């Protein structure tokens, strides 16, 4: 079992944006074991709303979302940020270089490819939050 992730802040708030219940459960399990506070959204519109209201320390943004896709949600979050830039980790099943470039252009800070393992998500979060 991996050691719990240690961050400078005692309780790090992560906005988890995922429309698939099984994926939310998996990530929720990982993050809760490492003392993250988890805020959830199920589509891009909820993500933008939650990001602005909750001001999380980091966002895990699935790209393939209903109502508003993850890239548009990232663009809207970035355009509305005034005081600080929330780190965004885009989560996608698309491995094509062109897809990755589009995701990064939308304002994501890094990309996590599905399927992923616990260690991968924790390492990427640690890099974004440090």
Shape: globular
Quote the distance from N terminus to C terminus.
23 Å
Helix content: 40-55%
Question: How much strand content do the residues show?
Answer: 15-25%
Flag low-confidence runs: none
Q: Biggest sheet, in brief?
A: 5 strands, parallel
- CATH architecture, by name, is 3-Layer(aba) Sandwich
Structural class: alpha/beta
The CATH C-level name is Alpha Beta
Here the CATH topology equals Rossmann fold
What is the count of distinct domains?
A: 1
* E-strand count: 5
The overall average pLDDT, rounded, is: 91
The CATH homology group name: Response regulator
How many whole angstroms does the radius of gyration measure? 13 Å
* Spatial sequence of strands, sheet with the most strands: 2-1-3-4-5
Number of helices: 5
Q: What is this structure's SSE topology?
A:
Blueprint: E1 13-17, H1 21-33, E2 37-41, H2 44-54, E3 58-62, H3 70-80, E4 88-92, H4 97-106, E5 110-113, H5 118-129
Parallel strand pairs: 1-2, 1-3, 3-4, 4-5
Give a verbal description of the structure.
- The chain has helices at residues 21-33, 44-54, 70-80, 97-106, 118-129, and strands at residues 13-17, 37-41, 58-62, 88-92, 110-113.
- The chain is an alpha/beta fold.
- It has one domain (13-121): 3-Layer(aba) Sandwich (Rossmann fold).
- Strands 2-1-3-4-5 form a 5-stranded parallel sheet, sandwiched between helices.
- Strand 1, helix 1 and strand 2 (37-41) form a beta-alpha-beta unit.
- Helix 2 packs parallel to helix 3 (70-80).
């Amino acid at each position: 079992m991996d050691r719990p992730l240690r961050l400078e802040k005692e309780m790090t708030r992560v906005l988890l944006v995922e429309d698939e219940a099984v994926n939310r459960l998996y990530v929720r399990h990982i993050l809760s074991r490492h003392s993250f506070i988890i805020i959830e959204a199920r589509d891009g519109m909820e993500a933008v709303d939650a990001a602005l209201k909750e001001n999380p320390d980091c966002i895990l943004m699935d790209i393939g979302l209903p109502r508003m896709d993850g890239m548009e949600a990232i663009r809207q979050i970035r355009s509305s940020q005034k005081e600080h830039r929330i780190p965004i980790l885009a989560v996608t099943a698309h491995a094509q270089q062109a897809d990755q470039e589009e995701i990064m252009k939308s304002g994501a800070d890094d990309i996590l490819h599905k399927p992923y393992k616990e260690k991968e998500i924790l390492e990427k979060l640690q890099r974004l939050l440090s």
